[in-house]
Amino acid sequence: MNTNNIWELAEAYLAGRLSLKEQGELKSRRETDEVFASEFNDNLNLISSLHSNGSQKRFRAMLSDIHQQQAAPVTTKIKRTIQLPAHFWRTSAVAATVALLTSFISYSIMSGGAKRNDANYTTISNTVRAIANDQNKLKKIVQDSVINKKSPIVPTSDVRRTGTGFALTNDGYFVTAYHVINDGNGEGDSVYIQSNDGIYYKAFVVNYSAESDLAILKVEKKNFQFTKGEVPYTFAGKKAMLGAQIYTVGYPQEDIVYSEGYISARNGYRGNSKQYTMELPAGHGQSGSPVIDARGNVLGVLTAISTPKESNTYAVSTDELLDLIEKMPPGNKMHLPKSNKLSRLSREEQISKMENYTFSVKVYKK
Amino acid sequence: MYSATNNEQQLLRALAKGERVATEQIYKQQFPIINSWLIKNGGSADDASDLFQEAMVVLFSKVQNADFTLTCAIGTYLFSISKHLWYKRLQQQQKEPGRLYDNTEDDGGDVGIAYEEDINVHHEREAHFNQLDAALDQIGEPCRSLLQAYYHKDKSMQEIAADFGYTNPENAKTQKYKCLSRLRKLFYSVQAK
Hints:
The complex is a heterodimer.
Chain A: H1 3-15, H2 20-32, H3 34-81, H4 86-105, H5 107-111, E1 121-123, E2 126-127, H6 132-148, E3 159-167, E4 173-176, H7 178-181, E5 190-194, E6 200-209, E7 214-219, E8 234-235, E9 245-250, E10 257-265, E11 275-279, E12 290-293, E13 297-306, E14 313-317, H8 318-326, H9 347-357, E15 358-364
Parallel strand pairs in A: 8-13
Antiparallel strand pairs in A: 1-13, 2-3, 3-4, 3-15, 4-7, 5-6, 5-15, 6-7, 9-10, 9-12, 10-11, 11-14, 12-13, 13-14
Helix pairs in contact in A: 1-3, 2-3, 3-4
Chain B: H1 4-16, H2 20-40, H3 45-64, H4 74-93, H5 109-138, H6 143-152, H7 157-164, H8 169-192
């Protein structure tokens, strides 16, 4: 049998074109003739790989065709009705597509607001499932509380989201990003902060602004203090200059993480004047982190990153925060720190002070 | 009786054959769900179509196997595969090493492992196909175009004979077998490395 015949035989075998008699002959030959069997098997493998590779390629081509077809009618519609600057067109078209598609499926997404439907803007709270690491920490705290009566409160249900918060006053007021508390699917049942030493404290929302994405909370415990001293940093009353060096500390993971960068644009996402655009690495879980300048002034609260490249990070500027503090409901007396004790310290010393006032915010839901 | 399960089986059989109507139906039903999930979890619309198409290919390959079993609904399967692919991608980019954050409770641990397995098989298959494509690129003309026309573009030997200027399909077929022999040599030498 020559080479071509072996190929032909393999093809016929794969296509199921062999008669019973031919199948029998093939079987006995594969059993007795080793050289033939190995060549035949190689041919068989090669042909079937070629076939499945080919059909997969056709399938992929069809998929991207379907994808384009699904996206196309929507984009033309948007183009007709809304005038947008050219560089926003693509993003907006995608966002509109997403909005249209999701509206069939999930009302909750739609009600979450325009930002949520935008592909390039991602808030960076961390939605978590019970993580082993976390569980262990919880266990340890339960044990601690039994043994030392150190922490009477231990959250019972699962962590839904984590973010970062930092103190406004030493007596328990702190700020985080509003979407950490409410991601558009309703507020969590309870909010806890976990301080640097691992102790949980329950907190409640005092004031918030969904629009600027800020929430002010207070620790429930009476006579609570973050540390012995007053909050060492101050809050910038006006917007910082372009190019200002900045850094942040937050909790993208269980341990506090430091990162640094600079202000790259005066305004935030799509020219939002309440925000800064920054070149600053940040990840999920860092929402609510303080953005601090070299002298220890808090300039803003970290809220979002642009995806997929994550080249930009956005923060709400502190004048928004100060605004929100002014509009506090009656009965809340807040004495913001007046003197800055960080300005003369080195970066390392600043960070080690900041650590005492920056903590992980955990939102629980049953 | 008409039931959802029967309907899904029919859909899968049609998908296995690469039928456009069935594929489109699954696409329309499932893509928006995955798209909105991904965007909530830090992905972009481009990521979503990437991942979803990858998940569809995983499913497509899985149903090629005559005795495949799908222990859950198509939507659940695609969603889980997409999620796993996304977590893998995040891990590779080291955005969030090892952290799987999620607010849906639909997939239990065991099922997760099964998906993991499907994805691993998928990756191996992709690597295999890449080697095959690499061998095809080295084979030279007219073999490369001829084999691609037959296997990738699904053209008949008649069409190929006409396109490539062979006097009859039989001659084209002989040429195809020669090409296959060359490809075999190249492919298995690449694999041996």
